[in-house]
Design goal:
Blueprint (H helix, E strand, L loop, with lengths): L1 H4 L3 H5 L2 H10 L7 E4 L2 H8 L3 E3 L4 H12 L1 E6 L6 H8 L7 E7 L2 E6 L2
Parallel strand pairs: 1-2, 1-3
Antiparallel strand pairs: 3-5, 4-5
């Protein structure tokens, strides 16, 4: 099905399987919502609820996380700009996030409440 109907999906979103494995290894509950660049792709690959990474940087991420009760953030190396790029490069500088690890250059964070 994926090869004929959704060609190359595994190259685009297949890396999310590694992020999900890391999330589960960190003890994340199965109903923990993830903020990610491509929520439909994340959901297809993992079965986990996901919402879109908003524009507007860290303040927007925190507002969306609060509104939709999202607990985790995935940042990918491409398309990460501004203060989110700073978070990607220097996770220890942002007390609002706990860096959980990396899978295929995607970085996973828990959002501190």
């Amino acid at each position: 099905f994926a090869i004929r109907v959704l060609p190359n999906w595994e190259r685009e979103d297949g890396h999310y399987a590694g992020v999900e494995t890391l999330l589960l290894q960190q003890g994340a509950p199965s109903d923990g919502i993830v903020i990610v660049r491509n929520p439909p792709g994340y959901n297809i690959v993992t079965g986990r609820a996901a919402i879109a990474l908003p524009t507007g940087g860290i303040a927007s991420v925190l507002a969306v996380a609060e509104r939709y009760d999202a607990r985790y953030l995935v940042l990918e190396p491409l398309g990460t700009t501004g203060d989110l790029r700073e978070l990607y490069d220097h996770p220890d500088r942002f007390p609002e996030f706990i860096y959980l690890g990396e899978a295929d250059d995607d970085r996973l964070y828990e959002i501190v409440r």
